[in-house]
Specification:
364 residues, Rossmann fold, eight-stranded mixed beta sheet, two-stranded antiparallel sheet, alpha/beta
Length: 364
């Protein structure tokens, strides 16, 4: 990661500092965030896929998949998935920003031998399954990059485009349940930011091992959700609770609530070991990416990403606030004070990063 910018940072509206400067900094974050989430036609395909085994969702069925609570839209209360975050526009905009951010930081929509695994073979239809596809950006862009491959996006709510690429389709399915494909029939399984959709991540690993062909590729990506610092700031890495106590408290509380709800958390640092211990995979390749939070870096591109990432993190705080109000045991005013402290740390603490764990592995 680039060395930090030594110029002073600005404070958020909730903390001391020049109010106009703070508002300007916040507005700049939002402009950068909005600029990176505006649709560029990536979800508008030139045709529609069909599958005779599947039934198309009717318009009047859509409302049954959602529930509104406290002004936010969630998956239906009847859903078996434990996924706790909203599935509405503000949350989808956050996910869209992170999708584009990762493309820039990683340099591609994947790591590992994707081109070899998806190479065209006469008489064979290459197939890829994307778990928790959301709006479907990854499926759409990959379908354009590999037009000879059939892409299938799975999600528990119908929020993906209804007009996918001709070689892509989106299906409603709880990915914690058995997938519809037979054993050894899929070339690649992609799983990004899905750990909160299942209570036991081993379900994902085992099901991926079942459907993947020998030599098939499993690709997992998960955010750490813990305060972390760039390697340029080694003095801050050992004890983040001393440097960003509010963010430390927030994430600790967040993970505690997930565990209380039966969700294994955190999971990101352990997926590579899980794949190894399963005995189903080899050539396991873990990679770690740091995404700046804020404008502390001296690199212009990192400052731009950092502004958007800070705005995205603020939206994440909004998305998890109902969980905290319901299950943290904290009073509303205590949560507000913690949030004000988190914002101050996000604006004033240099070297803060989001950590993304990406792992590729081949099926035995």
């Amino acid at each position: 990661m680039s060395s930090p910018d030594n110029s002073p940072t600005n404070s958020p509206p909730s903390r001391s500092g020049d109010e106009n400067e703070s508002e300007s900094e916040t507005a700049a974050d939002e402009r950068q965030f909005a600029g990176d989430t505006l649709s560029d036609d990536s979800t508008n395909g030139n045709g529609r896929s069909s599958d005779t085994e599947l039934e198309e969702l009717r318009d009047d069925d859509f409302p049954t998949y959602f529930a509104e609570r406290d002004g936010r839209l969630y998956q239906a209360d009847s859903a078996a998935s434990p996924y706790p975050l909203p599935v509405d526009t503000p949350e989808n905009q956050r996910v869209t920003f992170l999708h584009k951010c990762l493309l820039e930081v990683v340099g591609a929509h994947y790591i590992g031998p994707v081109h070899q695994v998806l190479a065209s073979v006469e008489g064979q239809q290459r197939k890829v399954v994307d778990l928790g596809c959301g709006l479907g950006e990854w499926v759409t862009e990959m379908a354009r990059q590999f037009p000879h491959v059939s892409f299938h996006g799975l999600d528990i709510v119908p929020i993906a485009t209804r007009y996918p690429e001709v070689n892509a389709q989106f299906e409603l399915h709880d990915i914690g349940e058995e997938w519809r494909w037979p054993a050894s029939s899929i070339d690649m399984v992609h799983a990004r930011s899905i750990f909160m959709t299942v209570r036991d991540f081993s379900v994902i690993i085992n099901e991926a091992a079942r459907v993947l062909k020998p030599g098939g590729l499993f690709l997992s990506g998960e955010w750490l959700y813990y305060p972390s610092f760039s390697s340029s700031f080694p003095e801050s890495r050992t004890h983040p609770s001393e440097h960003v106590p509010f963010l430390h408290k927030l994430y600790t509380t967040f993970h505690t609530i997930l565990i209380q709800r039966g969700i294994q958390s955190p999971i990101a640092p352990y997926i590579a070991d899980r794949l190894q211990s399963s005995g189903h995979f080899h050539s396991i390749n873990p990679m770690i990416f740091h995404v700046p939070i804020g404008t502390w870096s001296s690199a212009e591109s990192a400052q731009r990403i950092g502004r958007g990432n800070r705005a995205a993190l603020k939206r994440f705080l909004d998305s998890i606030k109902p969980m905290l109000l319901q299950d943290s045991g904290m009073l509303p005013e205590e949560i507000e004070d913690m949030y004000a402290g988190c914002l101050a740390e996000m604006y004033n603490m240099q070297g803060l990063v989001s950590v993304y764990y990406l792992v590729s592995a081949l099926k035995v």
